[in-house]
Task: structure prediction
Amino acid sequence: MPFGCWWFLNNSSIVAEITNQRLELLGTTFIPQHSDARVLEQLIYKWQDSRGVIAQCLSDSYDRLVSVGGSVSSEQIQRDVTKLFETNFTSWVRTPDKLPRVPAADAAHLADLT
Result:
């Protein structure tokens, strides 16, 4: 799954270009932004900026849809925003309910090997 914009590409114009391309090609099946910020202050201002850019990209996408005769409801907008900022990520990182378990005796033996 495409995941955000690399930190050094995190300029407004580049975020807009990449986000518009992804919306056009992938719909809402990507994660629009992430950060590997090492300083909290960087995370705050870059997230505020990126959130506004992503909102404008979505708005432009809906405008194009309406201009060709489509319609957009508030429910569709809420669904898309939720996917982009929540469920795409949580679905991507979710682990299966049942993972194979290593019996305790085998786990102890493996621990002895290290």
Summary: The chain has one domain: 7-93. Helices lie at 12-26, 40-67, 74-93, 104-113. The chain has a mean pLDDT of 80.
